[in-house]
Specification:
It is a single chain. The protein has a domain of 41 residues. The protein is mainly alpha-helical. Helix 1 packs antiparallel against helix 2. The N and C termini lie far apart (51 Å). It is 56% helix and 0% strand.
Length: 85
């Protein structure tokens, strides 16, 4: 995946950050035994996915046709240097 720039877009970063915040909120409220806060955090997690999809449709993500992983370039070969003499 490193060669395809997978996830290196504003849409991906924004969606993941929002989902991470929602995960932290849900985890905190789970520890506090507050089901309403937990489900509010889970709603924020889902909101992160929706925001990421909206941003991708606005052109801030990778286009759908970028599915193929680019092949690495072939290394240049050195030919032996001619000996002059």
């Amino acid at each position: 995946m490193a060669g395809s720039s997978h996830g290196h877009t504003p849409a991906a970063w924004t969606g993941v950050i929002i989902a991470f915040i929602g995960f932290c909120v849900a985890g905190a409220f789970m520890v506090m035994a507050n089901p309403v806060g937990f489900w509010a955090g889970m709603a924020v997690v889902l909101l992160g996915g929706v925001v990421g999809m909206i941003m991708r449709s606005m052109g801030l993500g990778q286009p759908k046709d970028v599915g193929a992983v680019p092949r690495p370039k072939q290394a240049a070969t050195r030919e032996p240097a001619a000996v002059e003499g």
